[in-house]
Amino acid sequence: MIVLGVESSCDETGLALYDTERGLLAHALYSQVAMHEQYGGVVPELASRDHIRRAIPLLQQVLSESGVVRQDIDAIAYTQGPGLAGALLVGASIACGLGLALDKPMLGVHHLEGHLLSPLLASQPPTFPFVALLVSGGHTQLMRVDGVGQYTLLGETLDDAAGEAFDKSAKLLGLGYPGGPAISRMAEFGDPSVYQLPRPMLHSKNLDFSFSGLKTAVLTLVKNHQTNICEQDKANIARAFVDALVEVLVAKCLAALKQTGLKRLVIAGGVGANQQLRTALNAAAEKRRFRVYYPELEFCTDNGAMIAFAGAMRLQINPEAAQRSYAFNVRPRWPLNELGI
Ligand code: ATP
Ligand code: MG
Ligand code: FE
Questions:
Q1: ipTM attached to this prediction
Q2: Per-residue pLDDT reduced to its tens digit, 185-205
Q3: 37 C-alpha to ligand 3 centroid (Å)
Q4: Which CATH class is domain 127-294?
Q5: 2-117+299-338, what's its fold?
Q6: How many of the other CB atoms lie within 10 Å of CB of 69?
Q7: Where substrate is bound, by residue (predicted)?
Q8: 196: Cα within 13 Å, side-chain hemisphere
């Protein structure tokens, strides 16, 4: 079964073809980052319009790269939510139009399920059950995953997401948008002994997180420097920020493994690309004897491959999930726990 995946929930247009027999056949991505950068964040209306411009050329690219002809596509999976309403509507209407024209069924996919299952696309995928840490631009959640659609929320952020904390702190340091990768690179040159930032909720008895205080602490440090903040100061602050955030994420992962008794930890979402986080988790895994799995770097942030894959997994479990009525609706807000099997 060949599934076409369409991702358009935020500022990346992603298309991909996944074959349940042969694996990922092709994927193509267009990031709108350069367009939104000048505004310091994503402008929803610009995002929607750009998805319209990019989707069809990307579709043609994945078809020609894979050698698949349109009629060979068995189903079309699109991101139904959560995300920006206008951006989601573009992907959904393209999926719907294609489905109607090609006479193929379609399926709405939950964006976070896409992230969550993306490590299964790697060459050495984890088996169920596992603990998953989803660390993206809009979410920070720890979950117990027993299978596709079997997600138990163990804890989540009470305010900012980890990716949001990266982006906001990077902005305070004048590092552009999205600043996660930039603040991470800068932290490499920082002296860890200069500043200590709080580790929010490190010792709370639950698996929840809170990152807004960390961003405020970065703001205070930046303000203390007034206008004369040098590159080394910025690097020291970046280092303090990354050290604090990573320590909390690792500690909560260890607590979740202990609570569930599981030995497999899966990381998903954009912050999963972070090198300091990966280094710290790998060290903890060796010491505590558990295994940690990551998506390929290119599949940490938004992409069409994870949507094609999640759609294919669902259709394999339940072929009835494919819909042939070409009325679509999107769900900009859609809690993962409302998603059944
Ligand atoms: P959601 O999936 O919750 O709706 P999103 O789709 O915007 O949010 P992702 O695409 O998964 O989120 O991830 C984007 C986030 O990942 C951004 O906040 C970005 O700064 C962060 N990020 C990407 N690479 C890195 C990195 N190397 N280090 C730290 N953060 C990173
Ligand atoms: Mg993005
Ligand atoms: Fe995402």
A1: 0.99
A2: 999 999 999 999 999 999 999
A3: 18
A4: alpha beta
A5: Nucleotidyltransferase; domain 5 (3.30.420)
A6: 8
A7: 134-138, 167, 180, 274
A8: 3
